[in-house]
Amino acid sequence: MSVQSPPAAPPALSGVRVRFSGVLASEWVKLRSVRSTVWTLLTTALIMVLLGFLIPLATTHRPAGARHEVVDPLGVSLAGIFFAQIALGVLGALVVTAEYSTGSIRSTLAAVPRRLPVLVAKVIVFAVVAAVVSAVAVLAAFLVGQAVLSSKSLELHLSTPGVPRVLVSAVAYLVFMGLIGMGLGAILRSTAPSIVALVALVFVLPLIGAFFSSGWEYTIQRYLPSQAGQAALSLTRGANSLSAGAGITVLGLYALVLLVVGAVLLRRRDA
Amino acid sequence: MIEADGLTKRYGDVLAVDHLSFTVTPGKVTGFLGPNGAGKSTTMRMIIGLDSPTAGWARVDGKEYRDLAAPLHSVGALLEARSLHPGRSAANSLWALARTHGLPRRRVSEVLDLVGLSEVAGKRIGTFSLGMGQRLGIAAALLADPSTVMLDEPVNGLDPEGVLWVRTLLKALAAEGRTVFVSSHLMSEMALTAEHLIIIGRGRLIADTTVEEVISGASGSRVRVRSPRAVELATALSNAGAAVDPPGEPDVLHVNGWTAAQVGDLAATAGLALHELVEERASLEEAFMELTGDSVQYHGHTGHDGDAAGLPVGAATTEVAR
User: Fold this and answer.
1) Residue A4: inside a domain, yes or no?
2) A49, A140 in Cβ contact below 8 A?
3) Does A9 reside within a domain?
4) Residue-wise pLDDT tens digits, B280-307
5) Domain end call among B216, B250, B271
6) Given the DSSP bridges, would you call strands B29-33 and B243-245 parallel, antiparallel or unpaired?
7) Contacts of A5 in chain B (CB under 8 A)
8) Which residues, including other chains, have CB under 8 Å from residue B267's CB and lie 6 or more apart?
9) Any residues with CB less than 8 A from the CB of A61 and at least 6 apart, and which?
10) How far apart are CA A239 and CA A261, in angstroms?
11) Less CB within 10 Å around the terminal CB: N or C of chain B?
């Protein structure tokens, strides 16, 4: 390989500077140029739709004596959310932690030494991508599920009161779970601990809470991330549950608080 | 231009960098030399704002790195080999960096072409050899046409051809008027590339000097002279004020602090025949060892402790030396 003289400064390079739009574009390049991201998102969407087909199918094939009235047509078609939330949460964490595990955080922060724009750009790019994929998956799962349920005349329609609100909430729920993962990733900077923390927050805390049927331990359950968010995923309000609007807001606040803590730490710590 | 003043980094009880002050000026290659663990990488990380100093400051072109409008246009840095995602292609990795500064797409092809990686632009970095990774790191450093180029051990993992390529490139960059700051733990490598040297050991500045001065300043410089009349010659030299080492082998003298010409002239005046007259300059490595001898953090042992553990001595020392 012969040595060429390094390029002299072409006029086009004078006046270059870091702009937020550039940081945003950079994060978009990063998100779409790693195969695992693309596959995780596609798999998440597929699982949503597949479960949106299988779970309603199972409920329509109950033994003859079973009462169909107990079927929650909306819930069964969106059953895939319980897997999708973890997939998106992990992906959100990876957007940050993969930078640390691969060492690419060094070139990222060398390019944008103010650091905060990097995290803000990651949040925006990830939130938009997660919202688009979730919207498609949620809508597809709903339509597929209702088509299956229609064989027993149990189906709901997009025009059924409350349905659009639940579908929009489902998308917000998934995006917020993804951002909670990203916040944990920014705080913990390592993939495995972030996933453990995410699973603990989403699955383990509610399990502990389930041992209590009164007292403050009972009351705080409705404020746990998954419980609060799920309040918005139902057409009716449960016994120990926030209102739909309050629920999804609480979930969003979890994401916000974790991201703010992550941002402060990103600014303070050595990379 | 890079300036550091009182730059200090403490990790717990360890002072990785200890009140380091220096200036790296444009137009020449400045070597940043020190044994492994001397604090070279930490210093470089502080210069580009990855680590914040415990005390003191580092500035590039008169500004703190984080205050630069276009950091990559001011400083192009190659840090440890791995600072890019192995799952991403070479072109996409550089494109993501280029985007932050609004650089045009053609810059990515230009720098990949410059380092000879055009043909593997679309390949994932994880499949690259160590040498290719280093070349890509150098491409990333040059992406935004930086006025200062800062490379941490750039020849690591390169084959001889690659090493030669880096040397030529560094000199060319300096000739263009850029500031070139290159770290190495190998004095011999720096001697071939650098004009100026900043030598540190245990985080402290040992020397801020030129390659020439390091060699000539080494106390190992002496003249070896062989004469059939060595005893008479020794007396004559001593009378003239030279420091003569007692002969280690018959007829051989070592004269410290004199040039070969001085010794030869004196012998001619005294009418003493010489059979051998050699100026023994300390090798660069010896000069370096002498400078940093007290500051080496991890001494290798070539003795028998490796054997005792049933390990080949070579393996043990290699590990220590890394």
Assistant:
1) no
2) yes
3) no
4) 766 666 667 777 766 665 556 554 443 3
5) B216
6) unpaired
7) 172
8) B225, B227, B233, B236, B273, B274
9) none
10) 33
11) C
Structure tokens at B205: 């500045």
Are B38 and B200 in contact by the 8 Å Cβ rule? The answer is yes
Instruction: Give per-residue pLDDT as tens, B25-56.
Output: 999 999 999 888 889 999 999 999 999 999 99
Contacting residues for A64 by C-beta, under 8 A, at least 6 apart:
none
Under a CB-based contact definition with an 8 Å cutoff, are residues B31 and B206 in contact? no
From the list A156, A172, A177, the residue with the least C-alpha distance to A236 is: A156
Domain that holds residue B56: 2-216
Q: Look at the block and give the residue holding tokens 């949503």.
A: A48
- Domain membership of residue B287 (yes or no) is no
CATH of the domain at B237: 3.30.70
Distance from CA of B70 to the nearest CA of A (A): 4
CA B280 to chain centre: 23
Q: Is residue B22 included in any domain, yes or no?
A: yes
Same domain, B79 and B178: yes
Token couple for B265: 């002239």
| A2 inside domain | no
| pTM for this prediction | 0.83
pLDDT: is A20 or B230 the higher one?
Answer: A20
| Under 8 Å between Cβ of A148 and A55 | no
Contact list in B for residue A104 (CB cut-off 8 A) is 83-85, 93
pLDDT band of B88, cuts 50, 70, 90: very high
Cα Rg of chain B, angstroms: 24
Q: Are the CB atoms for B303 and B269 separated by under 8 Å?
A: no
What is the residue whose two structure tokens read 């969003």? Answer: A252
**Closest Cα of chain A to B48: distance in Å?**
6
Characterize B128-160 residue by residue with b for buried, 16 or more Cβ atoms within 10 angstroms of its Cβ, and e for exposed.
beebbbbbbbbbbbbbbbbbbbbbbbbbbbbee
Answer yes or no: do A30 and B100 touch at CB < 8 A.
no
- Domain residues for A90? 20-59+71-268
B200 and B257 share a domain? no
Q: Which of A198, A186, A196 lies closest to A262, judged by CA? A: A186
Q: State the nearest Cα–Cα gap between B126 and chain A, in angstroms.
A: 10
Q: Do A104 and B83 touch (CB under 8 A)?
A: yes
In chain A, the number of structural domains is 1
3-class DSSP string for B289-317: HHHHHHHCCCCCCCCCHHHHCCCCHHHHH
Alpha-carbon gap, residue A99 to B87, rounded angstroms: 11
B144's tokens: 């935004």
Residue B318 has pLDDT above 70, yes or no: no
